[in-house]
Specification:
The complex is a heterodimer of chains A (325) and B (522). Chain A has 325 residues and is mainly alpha-helical. Chain A contains twelve helices and two strands. Chain A is 80% helix and 1% strand. In chain A, strands 1-2 form a two-stranded antiparallel ribbon. In chain A, helix 6 packs antiparallel against helix 10. In chain B, the strands form four sheets. Chain B has a six-stranded antiparallel β-sheet with strand order 11-10-9-14-13-12. Chain B has a five-stranded antiparallel β-sheet with strand order 5-4-8-7-6. Chain B has a five-stranded antiparallel β-sheet with strand order 16-15-19-18-17. Chain B is of the alpha+beta class and 522 residues long. The two termini of chain B are 42 Å apart. Chain B is 42% helix and 25% strand. The chains are: A mainly alpha (325), B alpha+beta (522). Chains A and B meet through helix 1, helix 7 and helix 8 of A and helix 1 and helix 6 of B.
């Protein structure tokens, strides 16, 4: 039966990914039909749309009463993004820097991480804290938009060939894309959350642990695949920017939305302060140091990152079994 | 590298030379993307449609099967539980009867009672009392015993208070016939223990000597009804009896509710109109899944039995919701699994779509490179399928094109180095292309030559003849040795002798001219 739960988790992730992809394509096509500028599309529909899978999982988990899953997923995703995604990509080909905004973004990531830990100090994360996180999101988005507007002259949105071919033009087709995406996302979220909760129940562990490990790994898989594929083709200049951006979005948007809509505040267990938060903050600082020095993340660093991730997961599992204090 | 010439009404024609110096003519390099949906998405959408259809069909069939299977299994289970419950209950009742018979069979008791009947001596009564006391301790579950004489007057009683149930025995309680044990009734004590009362005639050598009344504790009945193994979360086995007050359970029920008529004992009055107990007591035996509600008002599925000897009803029941929950749970698992597997199928479709469309995208990119002048570009032929065939054919075509372009390039050299003036012109009166000799001889650049009607350059005296010649060419008649005068860029005039051939398919004129120093010469 455990195998079936993994099948369910995998199936759910596929629905999330495809649903998100199809919905974003429908939305981009719709925006283009109404002559929305490509920059605005890139900054809104695409930026938020690509994080839709995580967002619907969080909404589903929060509304069905598993806040631990939400909290664990966000913290676990941020750790996995740096240690696993960036680590694996760096192992394949050194990660370099293409965008000039990465330095500033890494500061934002650190600030968001510290803000999250600060808000959790009293042991709970409720509506008010969620609103503070969302306010941070609005601030960051506005700043990004202003900068993008300033650089508009040089701004070029070049969609990949798949998109150029895959964007519907017929209004019925656009509607079909949006409807299929809008159905696929919650179906996927339901399957994923249901499987995660069931796993936690069967294994007799806290739902936060499932969020930190299996769910975080699952939701990081697509990023892992695309980043590693890009590394194989030696195109690594966007990898760090993607990881940093995803981490900022995870804390401010995903956790913010989750905390605001969840009927019960998230309880932050002691475990987070002794293990998960230090690891999250530590990895964020580590990556920021690389970014600040503009030092490429090479294969040795990639190996260290990956080893750190394996150790962290092992520690989590051992702790849940009561084998390590 | 890229020289463009805009020609009115003919779109954009460009002439350029690639690294090898080959000159080519082609259309604009801008890719016109198809407006339809890509292969990958089509595959996914098709699979979504197929999956949803299959899921719906599969769901409907499985729903039906699951429903039937689970409800049949539940009915079999109810039937089985009712049958085993009935056996257990009958053995309990038989046990009680045997105990009564065991006590009644004591010869000492009956002899003493005959003596008492004859003498009315209290010593005989005391002896009867001792025998009863011994019976009460040696026979299990005896709660009370009483012996009456033939006049139905109490002789001795044990274990009962004066005001207890047996005091109020009615005359029917005294059996008329000597054989058999008569069941009198049952009640539940305030401690929840059911008690059953029996009476029997005592005879000695076919002589009627009196009556024995026995009250037994029904602990085994409590054991039977409180054992919920195999009954799930809500199931319950109930034994009910009916008296003037109504239908009652003979034991505490599994789901006690406030305000029941049973008081502290936990046994309750069943006053519901749809209670399965009514069916059992009406001797309607079977399994029922519709329209029954138990003492809580819950819809139940029930199996019923009627116990003839005691006129009790036996009910085994489950909450309908529990059974429905089982069916729903099964259905949910089924749909979840089907949906998950379909999701993984979709992933396969996406990969397949990528695998199919990737080489096609690559081929499109190679075609684009060739169009942009890189004639050495070739598709990688990595697959041995239809796409491989396409790539192979494409590469053949590109190779052929390269050979043709090389040949063309060779002819182009004649065009470039010729001392004679060579040109392509239209019957519309414009040059389309001219060779370098034109510029050398006339002094006009190619751009200047193609941008205005060539009649503008013809000597006014020759315009009419030239126009006639063009009309002839337009009709398909070649020109041989036609002579006219052209203006050079320095304003001087030269004689040109023309040979031209019209191409009826394109309407273009291919012409060669040679400068003539003295027209009289030719």
């Amino acid at each position: 039966m455990e195998l079936l739960l993994f099948v369910q988790l995998a199936g759910g992730l596929v629905y999330l990914l495809l649903g998100g992809d199809v919905l974003v394509r429908g939305a981009v096509a719709l925006a283009r039909r109404y002559h929305v500028s490509p920059m605005v599309i890139a900054l809104t529909v695409v930026a938020f749309g690509t994080s839709l899978p995580e967002l619907v999982v969080v909404v589903e988990a929060a509304l069905t009463g598993y806040p631990g899953l939400v909290f664990g997923n966000v913290v676990g995703s941020n750790i996995a993004n740096i240690l696993l995604v960036a680590g694996a990509a760096a192992f394949v080909y050194p990660l370099t820097y293409g965008e000039h905004s990465v330095r500033r973004d890494s500061i934002v990531m650190l600030a968001a991480t510290v803000l999250l830990i600060g808000l959790s100090l009293n042991g709970t994360l409720g509506r008010v804290e969620g609103l503070i996180l969302l306010a941070g999101l609005v601030g960051v988005t506005l700043a990004t938009m202003r900068e993008a507007t300033r650089m508009y002259r040089g701004f070029e949105v070049k969609p990949p060939l798949e998109w150029a071919l895959g964007l519907p033009t017929n209004p019925w087709m656009i509607a079909l894309f949006i409807v299929i995406g809008a159905i696929g996302l919650p179906v996927g979220a339901h399957l994923v959350v249901d499987a995660s909760v069931e796993m936690a129940t069967r294994l007799g562990v806290d739902d936060a642990l499932i969020g930190l490990t299996i769910l975080a790994f699952g939701t990081s898989l697509p990023e892992l695949a695309t980043t590693v594929m890009a590394a194989i083709q030696k195109r690594t200049e966007v990898a760090i920017g993607t990881v940093v951006g995803s981490n900022i979005f995870n804390i401010l948007a995903i956790l913010g939305v989750g905390a605001v809509i969840s009927p019960i505040p998230f309880t932050v267990s002691q475990e987070f302060f002794t293990l998960n938060f230090p690891v999250m903050l530590g990895t964020a600082i580590l990556l920021s140091v690389f970014v600040w020095l503009r030092k490429p993340v090479g294969r040795p660093a990639g190996i260290v990152f990956l080893a750190w991730y394996v150790t962290y997961i092992a520690l989590l599992v051992l702790r849940s079994r009561g084998l390590v204090g | 590298m890229l020289a463009r010439a805009q020609v009115a009404g003919q779109g954009l024609i460009k002439v350029w030379k690639n690294a090898q110096g080959h000159g080519q003519v082609g259309r604009s390099p801008k890719i016109s993307y198809p407006r339809g949906v890509d292969i990958r998405t089509k595959l996914v959408f098709a699979l979504v449609a197929v999956t949803l259809g299959s899921l719906a069909a599969f769901g409907m069939v499985m729903d039906d099967i699951a429903d039937t299977m689970i409800s049949e299994a539940a009915q079999d289970q109810l039937e089985g539980l009712a049958a085993s419950g009935e056996d257990a209950l009958e053995s309990i009742v038989d046990g009680w009867r045997e105990r009564v018979q065991l006590i009644a069979s004591r010869t000492q008791l009956r002899v003493s009672l005959r003596d008492y009947n004859a003498s009315g001596d209290s010593g005989d009564a005391m002896r009867i009392g001792r025998i009863l006391g011994d019976a009460a301790t040696s026979v299990k579950s005896v709660a009370a015993l009483a012996v009456f004489d033939t006049d139905q007057q109490l002789v001795v009683q044990i274990g009962l208070r004066a005001d207890s149930t047996l005091d109020a025995l009615e005359s029917e309680a005294f059996p008329d016939t000597p054989d058999g044990v008569r069941y009198l009734g049952a009640y539940v004590t305030e401690h929840g223990v059911p008690r059953v009362a029996y009476s029997t005639q005592l005879t000695l050598d076919s002589e009627h000597v009196g009556y024995l009344f026995v009250l037994l504790n029904g602990n085994r009945l409590v054991d039977l009804t409180s054992d919920t193994s195999g009954l799930g979360e809500t199931g319950e086995l109930m034994v009910v009896s009916s008296d003037q007050a109504g239908v009652r359970t003979l034991h505490a029920v599994r789901h006690p509710i406030d305000g029941t008529a049973g008081g502290e004992s936990g046994a309750i009055l069943l006053d519901g109109e749809d209670d399965p107990a009514l069916l059992a007591l009406a001797n309607e035996e079977g399994v029922f899944t519709e329209g029954l509600r138990d003492y809580r008002g819950e819809q139940v599925w029930a199996a019923t039995r009627f116990v003839e000897e005691t006129e009790w009803g036996l009910v085994v029941k489950f909450d309908a919701n529990e059974k429905k929950a089982t069916i729903d749970d099964f259905r949910g698992r089924l749909y979840t699994l089907a949906l998950s597997l379909a999701g993984i199928g979709l992933l396969v479709a996406v990969f397949l779509g990528f695998r199919l469309s990737k080489p096609i995208h690559d081929l499109a990119a190679v075609a684009n490179r060739i169009r942009e002048g890189d004639l050495n570009a070739r598709a990688h032929r990595t697959r041995e399928d239809e796409i491989g065939l396409l790539a192979h054919t494409f590469n053949d075509m590109a190779a052929e094109l390269q050979v043709r372009m090389a040949e063309l390039h060779e002819y182009h050299k004649f065009f470039d180095v010729s001392l004679d003036l060579m040109c392509i012109a239209g019957t519309d009166g414009y040059f389309k292309r001219t060779n370098p000799a034109f510029t050398k001889v006339l002094g006009w650049t190619e751009e200047q030559l193609v941008s205005k009607p060539f009649l503008d350059l013809v000597h006014p005296d020759d315009v009419e003849a030239t126009q006639n010649e063009i009309d002839k060419l337009a009709r398909g008649v070649p020109t041989i040795s036609f002579l006219n005068r052209f203006r050079r860029s320095d304003g001087s005039w030269i004689y040109l002798r023309w040979n031209s051939y019209p191409d009826p398919e394109t309407g273009l004129l291919y012409a060669i001219a040679r400068q003539i120093e003295d027209p009289q010469e030719a």
